[in-house]
Amino acid sequence: MKPAMTDPGFHSTGLADVQGRLLLIRVVVLIIVGLLVVRLWQLQVRDGDYYRNLSRDNRTRSVVLHPVRGSIYDRNGILLANSVPSFNLYVELGDVPDREALTGKLVELLSLDRSELTKTMNAHVGGAPVRLKKGVSLKEAAIVESYRLDLPGVAIRPEFQRNNPEGAYAAHVLGYVGVASEEQLAHEAFQGLPTGSVIGQYGVERSYEQALQGRAGRKLIEVDALGHEKRVISVDKPHVGNDVYLTIDFRLQKLAEDLLGEEAGAIVALDPQTGAILTLASRPSFDPNALSHGLRAAVWNDILQDKRHPLTNRAIQGQYPPGSTFKIIMAAAALETHTIELTEAVRCGGRFRFGRRTFRDWKRYGHGAVDLHKAMAQSCDVYFYRIGHRLGVDTIAAYAKQFGLGERTGVELPSERTGLIPSSEWKQRTRGEPWYPGETISVSIGQGFVTVTPLQMANVIGMIANNGMAFQPHVVRGVRGRTGEWIEERSPAEALHLTLPARQLEAIQASLAAVVTEGTAQRAESSMVQVAGKTGTAQVVSLRSESEEDTPKQFRDHAWFVAYAPFEHPSIAVAVLLEHMGHGGSSAAPLAKELIEAHVSYGVDDHERPQASLAWPSDTMMQRETRRGG
Fold first, then answer.
1. Model confidence pLDDT, tens digit, residues 258-304
2. Which positions are annotated as active-site residues?
3. Pairing outcome for strands 229-236 and 217-223
4. Which domain does 204 fall in, by range?
5. Which of 131, 201, 226, 627 is deepest in the core (most CB within 10 A)?
6. Are residue 182 and residue 266 in the same domain, yes or no?
7. Among 415, 414, 387, 381, CA closest to 399
8. How far are the Cα atoms of 325, 413, 576 from residue 402, in angstroms, in the given order?
9. DSSP characters for 500-561?
10. What's the whole-model pTM score?
11. Would 302 be classed as within a structural domain?
């Protein structure tokens, strides 16, 4: 058998094909290696800094250290608001791979509300951690730490929360705090505050936010793959806020609120010689701790829809007809314009006829012949109807402005209301109608369009007490820094001054003393100190039952009493307003008396703390004892 013949051409072609393939592989390998080299150059050289920073950011995290808020004290150093340690539950949503699973685990371990958790997480915008719960207990904190591996991104952080040791007392003065909203953080006043900062939302907490806030710090930490802290890299400590001292005397404040009890109303007391507010009580009230510690939406809505309006500071926001307390302004206007003389007598037969209308006096058959002294003491309506008709509404308005009515007092609390002093120009501008002379008759006894706030009326009686001069009412004494120095200290600022001559002013003062000793406010007479004041009964509706007992409470009159003491050297001016409590002489005057006596007693024994002992008089007693009017 012959051996097979090999083809030289076949061998050369096969070898060339193999070599071609090897060359192609080499080229492909070189290209791949080249691409890898280029990519490594890009990652390590060109973009090295970027990825190093990214790597560092993936293992480190900057945590905001919120500052301790400054404290608030009364004039005697009694602590009214401070910050206490608290544990709060946070989550970094960027570290959470499955929100539904995390939500379920938190509900299981801590019995949290699933819908609230979901809503909080979904509403969050931005990269800041989300606070899921305030005030975590030690038991709950231990549970979270025990299940760390099942709770990615979850952490317990120690912080401080606002605390009001006295609960609801002085709530409308102090206010409350809350987490700043996105809209608030965008405001110029809060520029630079980190997300999640707690700011004042009401009262002094809001007005003195800049002083109380302090400065936030930051902590740089290293975290593991689940977002849990491993170690602290660096710390920039926060700065504690400054302390605010009030002019409020908490002993009087507590007594005033206890005297109000469950009744709606306000009690304001100030030092007429400085304008320092000693008491600013408003009821019904609220608990600042409940609001500052966070509320569920449903609870907050209940507060907002409460028909008694507990968030309204009636002392500066309540606008009421002043009733017969307005006769103080009427007397000053009449004497200075010589509309009537001190000794001029006016006949009161129980009614005043004007056109087709008859305006009645509170005393059915009248007071007989009365001069200014007796008219004030007995609160004779007919006397003031006559001088009001002679003065005219524009003159009355001008003198009311001298007393600061119709304007804000400037107290350092948000949302103060102005009240209303009507004039012919005001009515034409706002209602497009002329002023009718008959409307002046109602204005002359503090009815009609006239409204005032209790703080304004405390300022009015304070001006009379201080011989025609008023200092701007204020609730803050000053701001003290962390080293004890006064950063800001309030000095008395003269705000208003009457042009009334001394002789006429003294006559008004004497008539106010007679209101207490022989007139409509005899229940305010004290054996400790001489009190001067004026009662007022502000009509709420024009149609009422003959018997007050038959009138539903919401339609009953408001009760007023304004007073000062001691008569010779006044150190306190008081305004009491009780909603739907009838006559000022029976319901408001006794409260003012008890507050004044407490103020006087503190000058002897500064440590004594009396409790409210006044029992509300029965409707029958109120009706019988206050037939004297006012």
1. 999 999 999 999 999 999 999 999 999 999 998 887 766 777 788 88
2. 324
3. antiparallel
4. 61-246
5. 201
6. no
7. 387
8. 16, 22, 22
9. --HHHHHHHHHHHHHHHHTSTTGGG--SSS--EEEEEEE-S-S---SSGGGS-GGGSPEEEE
10. 0.84
11. no
